[in-house]
Amino acid sequence: DGTPTYNFVVAIDDALMGVTEVIRGDDHLSNTPKQMVVYEALGFTLPRFYHVPMIHNQQGKKLSKRDGATDVMAYKEMGYLPEALLNFLVRLGWSHGDQEIFSFEEMCDLFDPRDINKSASIYNTEKLDWLNAHYIKNSSNATLATLLEPYGITLVSHDKKEILLDALKDRAKTLKEMARMVDDIISTPKTYDDKAVKKAFKGDAKAILEDFTMKLQVRDEMHLPSDYHEAMEELVNEKDIGFGKIGQPLRVALLGKLSGPGLDTVMAVIGKEESIRRIEQAITGIDT
């Protein structure tokens, strides 16, 4: 009905809550003088007002939901750490020299609303991914094991947790992506990528895998990645072949595709018996 209730009640609400700083988007700039009149008329102490330029997408237009303006909890579901999201948000429209990485303590100590940029900031998902990858890489394995549980990954009591997470820390941009990588390793492949099979299973690939299986069977102590690398190296030298001859078909047998971490790491994580089982499954299940 045209009654100016917003500017009236928001000023009273903030005053009664003891708000001393108001930081908001510059789309509220026109409301500030009106609210200041209310403060002064009612004898309230004026807070300090700061106006942050709007966040734009990479095309320089106002951010919309499809650009990333979504519920905060959605970022958790997407696999972003709280530290990364805070770091990302604090750098939208504010800077401290050339520093990009800020701990929570540094944010509290260094942030000054008087240093807020005058121009609009750009929402850049690549920057958020980069920050998130940094915090994942620098998280302890115990912390990561706990953070992965909501994504269906249970590693807390896994005896090769350290080897597995150390191998994936540098590869994952989000927890969701890391969870998928973990599952690719600890779960036996149900299918094999067609292009990978055509590329890897040529010539005597199956015979080479059979020979490698025999090498694994006669070895007693197989715990570390170096133990499996030694077995691969021994076979390569005996048969006078390149690592690709064993590496490509072995990768497909273990993971169902040609991408992933080091094969010695994969085998160390899943163990000798599971490695042999997956190789034998591929030998009998893949048509060449």
Task: Describe it.
- By secondary structure, the chain is mainly alpha-helical.
- The protein has four domains: 5-52, no CATH class; 65-135, Glutamyl-tRNA Synthetase, domain 2, CATH 1.10.1160.10; 139-186, no CATH class; 194-285, Arc Repressor Mutant, subunit A (Orthogonal Bundle).
- The chain contains 15 helices and four strands.
- The chain has helices spanning 5-16, 32-41, 72-77, 82-90, 104-110, 125-137, 141-148, 161-168, 175-186, 194-200, 205-218, 225-239, 243-255, 263-270, 272-285; strands spanning 21-25, 48-52, 55-56, 121-122.
- The strands form two sheets. The protein has a two-stranded parallel ribbon with strand order 1-2.
- The radius of gyration is 28 Å and the shape is elongated.
- It starts with a helix and ends with a helix.
- The model has no long low-confidence stretch (mean pLDDT 92).
β-strand percent reads under 5%
Overall structural domain count = 4
Question: Helix tally?
Answer: 15
- The parts where pLDDT drops under 50 for at least 5 residues are none
Radius of gyration: 28 Å
Secondary-structure blueprint:
Elements: H1 5-16, E1 21-25, H2 32-41, E2 48-52, E3 55-56, H3 72-77, H4 82-90, H5 104-110, E4 121-122, H6 125-137, H7 141-148, H8 161-168, H9 175-186, H10 194-200, H11 205-218, H12 225-239, H13 243-255, H14 263-270, H15 272-285
Parallel strand pairs: 1-2, 3-4
Helix pairs in contact: 1-2, 4-6, 8-14, 10-13, 11-12, 11-13, 11-15, 12-14, 13-15
